[in-house]
Amino acid sequence: MGLDAWPDVPRGTDVKKGTLAALGWAHADQADVATGWKRILGTVRTYADLDPALLSCVEGLIDFVTSGPAAE
Fold first, then answer.
1. Residue 43 burial by CB count (10 A; 0-12/13-18/19+): exposed, middle or buried?
2. Is the pTM of this model over 0.90?
3. In a 3-state reduction of DSSP, which class is residue 35?
4. Torsion 47-53-58-63 (CA) sign
5. pLDDT(29) > 90
6. Can you tell me the distance from the alpha carbon of 28 to that of 42, in angstroms, rounded to the nearest whole number?
7. In this structure, what are the phi and psi dihedrals at residue 8, rounded to the nearest 5 degrees?
8. 13 band by pLDDT with thresholds 50, 70 and 90
């Protein structure tokens, strides 16, 4: 997307609408949100397009929520 950094979205603000608002894109309703996020996702071609710090956090979250019960 050519951004130097991902927009900051204030805590308590819907992250999808807040991101679109920070980018100056339409975000009034679900159709706007769907269009905006399709546009964002359309710019990602490979994992190399993503911030490594974000990937690390997402991978950790996935590992956490998909792990089985803790051994006792």
1. exposed
2. no
3. helix
4. positive
5. yes
6. 21
7. -80, 130
8. very high
CB 32 within 8 A of CB 26: yes
Nearest to 20 by CA among 12, 30, 11: 30
Task: Report which of 27, 31, 34 is spatially closest to residue 13, judged by C-alpha positions.
Answer: 27
- Residue 10 makes CB contacts below 8 A (sequence gap 6+) with 18
Structure tokens at 65: 């929520």
Q: What number of residues does the chain have?
A: 72
Question: Which is nearest to 17 in space by CA: 40, 37, 3, 1?
Answer: 37
Q: Give dist(CA 21, CA 29) in Å, integer.
A: 12
Indicate the DSSP class of residue 22.
Answer: H
**Residue spans per domain, the chain:** 15-65
